[in-house]
């Protein structure tokens, strides 16, 4: 005959194990200490096992308790996911989320995945374009939340991270040493003019060898060593290599990655998405230090 675990008792056990004591666990669970202790005893009795080592001043786990903790975390996570997906009515709707195509990777897919898991009833429409176009759409109220790449953000910008521009080419790039320097760029890319002005200031002749509306064309051209490109470090395709200083190309400025959030229409939903974005870029900043 099948036996079922008491998930309430299991949650108390996992919380006690993670917090290190019944008192703290009771506070987190909004239960009395005696209720938590009774649930622990009920769980041990149902399994016929000692789960807690109570011989020391602080509560520890027996080998059986350590094994159950691993199972318990997974069971509770699955239970909470099911409950959220099938019953959560708190957040429903649709958000327009704009991101410059050159910073979609590596963070935005993880942002979308985490937000979908946390708020499964909210639909996020991702729109990828240039910073200038995204800001126009944001001002016109056509988009709820945008990320931008700017040397300096506007007064309502929230700075998420900083990244420096760098030159990229194929491995052992010969194009990076050719003069005039051949560049590959999308026609509306913000970085294009900045790279050109830096080359002019350094007295390096240049030409736009590849001009396109397709980021894939730029990627292929640089990878084939037909041209170079300057973009934010950390956002380049994995098969591009940073051009070494020996190629003589000028230093490029740092950019801010900023967030603009319009909370007027979908305020609570937008703030939830903004929180997920902050966490993703907070990890980026921690890794950079």
Description of the molecule:
With 289 residues, the chain is an alpha/beta fold. It has 2 domains: 7-87, Orthogonal Bundle (Arc Repressor Mutant, subunit A); 91-289, D-Maltodextrin-Binding Protein, domain 2 (3-Layer(aba) Sandwich). The chain is built from 9 helices and 11 strands. Strands 3, 4, 5, 6, 9, 10 and 11 form a 7-stranded mixed β-sheet that branches. Strands 1-2 form a two-stranded antiparallel ribbon. The chain has a two-stranded parallel ribbon with strand order 7-8. The protein is elongated. The N and C termini lie far apart (56 Å).
The portion of residues assigned to helices is: 40-55%
Nearest-angstrom radius of gyration?
27 Å
CATH fold descriptor of the largest domain: D-Maltodextrin-Binding Protein, domain 2
- What is the total domain count? 2
Task: Quickly give the CATH architecture of the largest domain.
Answer: 3-Layer(aba) Sandwich
Helix-strand makeup class = alpha/beta
Shape: elongated
Order of helices and strands: HHHEEHEHEHEEEHEHEEEH
Low-confidence stretches: 284-289
Using DSSP, what is the number of strands? 11
CATH hierarchy, class of the largest domain: Alpha Beta
- Largest pleated sheet: 7 strands, mixed
Number of helical stretches of at least 4 residues: 9
Give the distance, in angstroms, between the N- and C-terminal Cα atoms: 56 Å
The averaged pLDDT comes out at 89
Strand content: 15-25%
As an assembly, this protein is: single chain
